[in-house]
Design brief:
single chain, alpha/beta, 10 strands, 334 residues, 2 domains, Rossmann fold
């Protein structure tokens, strides 16, 4: 009987699930993802996580709790670095301990460290360790699984670069064509952008108003890296680099009508990257821009009010006064 491996639908699920699902399946494991986020899952996450954890970490706790009695093992990798020369948010590194000592009645965790700070070859070593921890020790089978996972990841990224959101690609929902009247940049981490409960159906609401979106995941990484080269110092946080690089590209693209940024209250990366993006936008960007900051207490009514204000601003500028700045005179000195 195949070992059941649970994967919580949180954090970088919408970035790496096709890769890890393919790898584990090729090894012979049965992959069991947790369901989409619900109020019950969020409530359990709030209950079992520490008070000052950010919203995405609380959501992840809730998904781990949901899977606890459905699987034989649970994958909670220790992500230290996912790109050469760059680190990821420290909370990813501490996630295995947070889950292990906070959520009751868990199955054994697979907490293999992924650390690509020196080179990408470390990924192969980590995948071997992961396979060994599940008692899969045939190197031919492991290598076959790695090759299949790489191929699945390339196909996944190619589909996203064509304008499909990762949640639709993972769920195999075909891309739907619809009439658009505006196109905006939507900036944020994958666990905020594609979790429809956490962001209160933001992408759906945008599409219902005929607004097409471009997210950081839809951009070629080379574009993001090039824009970040304009900064005075090299960025060493992968997630912050993705936000800033994509925002700089969107602000310099005349075919994009505005920009929305969604951030999580209590996120250290967001507090720095978001502040930089907001200052740059208010100083140089002449189109509608808004930051939506959310936590577990954010309500639908207030959230919808802010989105409606953004819609009104887009409509007003597109029909009446596109030559006016959306922010008024900048108060930041050069």
């Amino acid at each position: 009987m195949a070992v059941k491996v649970g994967i919580p639908r949180g954090m970088y699920f919408y970035k790496y699930y096709p890769f890890i699902q393919t790898f584990l399946t090729e090894l012979g494991a049965e992959v069991v993802p947790s369901p989409e986020t619900t109020k019950e899952i969020l409530d359990k996450g709030v209950l079992y996580s520490i008070d000052d954890a950010c919203l995405p970490v609380k959501v992840y706790h809730g998904h781990a709790y949901n899977l606890r009695d459905k699987v034989d093992r649970m994958l909670v990798p220790r992500l230290t670095s996912v790109s050469k020369g760059e680190y990821i948010c420290p909370k990813f590194g501490g996630l295995p301990e947070m889950i292990k000592y906070s959520v009751p009645d868990l199955p054994p965790l697979i907490d293999t460290e992924i650390n690509l700070i020196k080179n990408q070859r470390e990924l192969v070593k980590a995948l071997y360790k992961m396979a060994f921890s599940l008692k899969f020790k045939n190197p031919v089978r492991i290598n076959k699984g790695i090759s299949a996972a790489m191929k699945a990841n390339r196909e996944f990224e190619a589909a996203v670069h064509k304008g499909n959101t990762p949640d639709y690609v993972i769920a195999a929902i075909p891309h739907m064509s619809y009439k658009t009247k505006a196109r905006i940049g939507l900036i944020g981490h994958p666990y905020l952008l594609y979790d429809n409960f956490v962001n209160m159906g933001l992408i759906k609401k945008l599409r219902e108003r005929g607004i097409d979106i471009i997210t950081p995941d839809m951009l070629d990484p080379h574009i993001i890296n090039e824009r970040c080269m304009e900064l005075s110092k090299r960025m060493f946080w992968s997630s912050g680099k993705d936000l800033i690089g994509s925002a700089l590209y969107i602000m310099d693209n005349s075919s994009i009508d505005g920009m929305l940024a969604i951030t999580a209250f209590g996120c250290g990366v967001d507090s720095l990257a978001g502040e930089f993006i907001e200052k740059q936008a208010r100083k140089y960007y002449k189109k509608p821009f808004m930051v939506l900051n959310i936590d577990e207490h954010t309500g639908d009514a207030g959230f919808n009010t802010r989105i409606e204000a953004f819609f009104d601003l887009l409509d007003w500028r597109n029909t009446n006064a596109s030559y006016l700045s959306a922010h008024g005179r900048s108060i930041y000195s050069s």
